[in-house]
Write a structure and sequence with these properties.
4 helices; single chain; 3 strands; three-stranded antiparallel β-sheet; globular
């Protein structure tokens, strides 16, 4: 099944390029290169199109309940296995910047897994997830579906910085 492996490798590459080019667009815009920023945004969108098509032909888009189960599995792996290992290596190498970033992500992934579990329970019962405004911390990626606290419990960013997710 070499083609199946190729599909997944292409999906990973296209997904990474999508995010990388979106971030490069922000940097170009900051530096005053608005047309270069547009080019990077266009390339980012093109990579997203490729990734979406690859995910579909890989058969990885299931029912919402199955997608939530997959999300729970992935997020749980990240906060129980992947990020703890990464934090440990970063500490051993004295990379405080990486240690903090990995720790923030690890804690946010645990929140995501819990929210996916809540959503799965709701979907299994035939209803949507009960949520106020969904907000995200722009520093660590913590997600809030109820009124958020005054500051992010993971990274300490003030609630006024949280972004509303539509």
């Amino acid at each position: 099944m070499a083609t199946e492996q190729d599909i997944m490798e292409a999906f990973a590459g296209e997904s990474q390029a999508n995010r990388k080019y979106a971030i490069f667009a922000e940097k170009a815009q900051e530096e005053g290169f608005s047309n270069v920023a547009k080019l990077f945004r266009a390339a980012s969108k093109a990579e997203e199109i490729h990734a979406r098509r690859l995910l579909r032909i890989a058969g990885m888009i299931q029912s919402t309940a199955e997608n939530l189960k997959g999300g729970i599995e992935g997020e749980t792996h990240e906060f129980t296995t992947m990020y703890p290992d990464f934090v440990e290596r970063a500490q051993a190498e004295g990379r405080k910047d990486a240690e903090i970033t990995f720790t923030h992500a690890m804690k946010a992934e645990e929140v995501h897994a819990g929210l996916y579990k809540d959503a799965l329970e709701a979907v299994t019962n035939g209803s949507d997830l009960k949520a106020d405004d969904v907000k995200i911390c722009p520093v660590c990626g913590n997600v809030f579906i109820t009124t958020p606290p005054e500051k992010c419990p993971i990274c300490g960013v003030p609630a006024g910085s949280f972004q509303v997710v539509e």
